[in-house]
Amino acid sequence: MQEKIKSLFRPTSEDRFNIYQSAEEAKNAKLRNKQISKVLKQHKKEELKKLKILLLGTAESGKSTITKQMKIIHSNGFDMSERLEKISDIRRNIQQSIVVLLSAMDRMKIPLHNKDNELSRDFIMKEAGNPESHRRNEFLDHVEKLWNDAGMQECYGKSHGFQLIDCAKYFLDKIPEIKSPAYVPSDQDILRCRSLTTSIQHTEFEVPDGGHQVKFDVYDVGGQQGERKKWIQVFDSVTAIPFRCGLFVSVLLFINKIDVLAEKIARGRDIAELTKLYPEVFPNFEKFTPSKSDIMEFLEAYPSYNNETCKKSRSVSRHDVHPDTIKTAVYIKHLFMKIVRGELQLRQRITQQAPNWHDGHSCEYFYTCAIDTNNVQRVLNGCRSLIIQNHLRRFGII
User: Where along this sequence does the record place binding of GTP (predicted)?
Assistant: First the structure.
């Protein structure tokens, strides 16, 4: 009896159309409903064909730069309006850089060599809190004077001792060009430009493979801790998760900024101090020795900036790459892979997992330099093959 009563109140597919005043309206409504259902079904079918990639990683790890490279390589790059929009971000990077350098000079007691530049220093620090000051050329004029001061250059030489964005020197050197009214950012300018990602950035492109186009959906999310709560929104049906330094999910580990690592080591900074402070996080670094194959693998990925090193060879040394750079990069790679295999656990898990819980997943690593298009092109070619294989496996084709 209870079921019979419930059935009286359970709407059927026909009841949904009884609210219309005429049979013709109900007929049209049924037709629209059928058309919408068909469109939704087709949309679901198309969505299943797409390969969704979610870029995860800490702040300043290069996720957005990789997304920009994908746009350059696969989506015809940036149009004029997009390039002009980046000018404000580039000028803001210059403002951030000079304020950090001036603060560091004050903390390290490094004086300006040219006393006339003290007026420029006072102007910059006074305008530091003004979010619009970077738009004026007067501001850039003062920055240019300070950047050319020997005291400022001395401070920059010690920048391994404080936090400074990677693109600081690049844009500070280009101030005369950036001040010009005719300035249009190049691809390299856009790649080096830094801006805070506070929303989910979605990029679509198609890649030819085997005579047909494979569709990719790439999601770039903010790496700051406050932004990570948004990550869950784009985890559904993700095919691959490139992490920056039930389904067959591939984690593609991008060990990024190898160029920055090389620069810091060349200026006397390494992770030896960190290994002493946090031996449980960086175990056995001093005793670690990369194998010959590890060294060759890293050198093949490392960007070449001149014709001599452009010719790839199976060598275990390069005059432009410090051995400590290789050791550090390979060590970090080994550290991540041990974590993936469950051989190393840096902290207690909140939820306990079986030892084989990762057996259905895979993790592949790549050494990347996000601002080098050739390097990223090679990496993406390797990623594409892995992702397509997993996508075919997902549907039982292989």
Answer: 60-65, 191-197, 220-224
To the question of whether residue 196 is assigned a binding role by annotation, the answer is yes
Among 17-26, 275-284, 324-333, the least confident range = 17-26
Distance CA 200, CA 218 (A): 10
Q: Is the domain of 84 the same as that of 73?
A: no
Q: Is 191 annotated as a binding residue?
A: yes
Same domain, 209 and 108: no
274-314: per-residue pLDDT in tens? 788 888 878 888 888 999 999 998 998 888 755 444 444 55
Q: Which two tokens stand for residue 375?
A: 């390097």
Determine the pLDDT at residue 10.
Answer: 46
pLDDT for residue 361 is more than 50 = yes
pLDDT at 60: 73
Q: Is 29 among the domain residues?
A: no
- Residue 220 annotated in ligand binding: yes
Contacts 24+ apart (CB under 8 A), 392-397: 393/248, 394/239, 394/247, 394/248
User: Does 132 show up as a binding residue in the annotation?
Assistant: no
Query: pLDDT of 177-215, one tens digit each?
Result: 999 999 999 999 999 998 876 667 777 877 776 667 777
Q: Is 362 marked as binding a ligand?
A: no
Query: In terms of residue numbers, what domain contains 130?
Result: 80-192
Question: Is 51:205 a contact under the CB 8 Å cutoff?
Answer: no
Looking at the 3D structure of the chain, how many domains does it have?
Answer: 2
Say if residue 334 is in the same domain as residue 390: yes
β pairing state of 362-367 and 240-244: unpaired
User: Is 222 annotated in some ligand binding site?
Assistant: yes
Is 303 in contact with 375 (CB distance < 8 Å)?
Answer: yes
Indicate if 378 and 316 belong to the same structural domain.
yes
155: annotated binding-site residue? no
What's 367's domain CATH number?
Answer: 3.40.50.300
- Is 197 marked as a binding-site residue? yes
